[in-house]
Amino acid sequence: MAGGSGERFWPLSTKERPKQLLKLVDPQKSLIQMTVERVLPIVPVERIFIATNSVQAPAVMEELPNIPAENIIIEPAFKDTAAAIGFASVIVGREYPGSVMIVLASDHLIKHEDNFRESLKTAIDAAANENAIVTLGIKPAYPETGYGYLETESIHAGEVGKVLRFCEKPLYNIAEEYVKGGRHLWNSGMFIFKIDVMMDAFKRVLPDHYNLLMQIDELGSSMRDPGNEALNLLFSNFTKISVDYGIMEKFHNTLVIPVEFGWSDIGSFPALAEVFEADKNNNIVKGTEARSLNSGGNIVISTTSKRVSLLGVNNMVIVETPDEILICSKEEAQNIKKII
């Protein structure tokens, strides 16, 4: 899935070039390039599909020249992940009937890629043999309030278990209880399923989506044209709802595999502290040099190489591009979209 509004990493990201197209971690590779390379050892390039939109499709194609052009799925409107995954399932199901589909975000970071691929293989087997929708649950490293959680049976890393309950993003004290209890996992947003199982799930628990998807399927090759009037009309009727709320929380056979492979969704500028090593003043500086006096805990990013001087400044995010300068506290970084 390669959509997004380009807001959380503004001004580095824009609507045309959201986070997955940025070289945030590797100066040579964008996050979406890293995501594709991560699965190539187990999924051939002709079976990798990218779900995006008409605004971002040109940049996606530019970043991924080895992905066949017909494997770029262009959604005519943003209707959240239930519609996106349903639409992709219809298209991929036509190309590869009866297949198992892996749904990944294009902008996550995974450090231990061999472990990640082994977890996917376990999930593929479970999805194929158990007629289940399988997700990967991240063992929480700390009481994070920005993630949803999965309550599970008492299962160990690499084992397959039942999801008992999906939990909303919690308050800090609740997150602490989740971490101490050992039965809750971060919801990674990765899903593995047989396509016919997912379509059955739509039919059972999200029937309005299912009816629209069946009408889209009847369009045949016209469904691949984002300018098609009938496709746009049908897509406009989707209710905006995530696959978590619309499908995963309600489906009767949802399984989870606890995993530990150095995952981060890099959801905001402060999350870069999980990725990069700070200097002696606890500042993270990328793309420039920074002089620092009585300053610490800052994140400084420049695309122009202008040197930045920090004096008596703490826990700030400072981002400079040729057109914009962002200065905000780490606490306000989640609100960047409000200032845009």
Tell me about this structure.
The chain has two domains: 249 residues, Spore Coat Polysaccharide Biosynthesis Protein SpsA, Chain A, CATH 3.90.550.10; 70 residues, no CATH class. The chain is 29% helix and 22% strand. It contains ten helices and 16 strands. The strands form five sheets. It has a five-stranded mixed β-barrel with strand order 5-8-6-7-9. Strands 11-13-15-16 form a four-stranded mixed beta sheet, with no helix packed on it. A hairpin with an 8-residue loop joins strand 6 and strand 7. Helix 3 crosses helix 6, helix 6 crosses helix 7 and helix 7 packs antiparallel against helix 8.
Short description:
The chain is α/β, with parallel strands linked by helices and 340 residues long.
Task: Walk me through the topology.
Blueprint: H1 31-39, E1 50-53, H2 57-63, E2 72-75, H3 80-95, E3 100-103, E4 109-110, H4 113-130, E5 133-138, E6 149-152, E7 161-167, H5 172-181, E8 184-194, H6 195-205, H7 207-217, H8 229-236, H9 243-248, E9 254-259, E10 263-264, E11 284-286, E12 290-293, E13 299-302, E14 308-311, E15 316-320, E16 325-329, H10 336-339
Parallel strand pairs: 1-2, 5-9, 11-13, 12-14, 13-15
Antiparallel strand pairs: 3-8, 4-10, 5-8, 6-7, 6-8, 7-9, 15-16
Helix pairs in contact: 3-6, 3-7, 6-7, 7-8
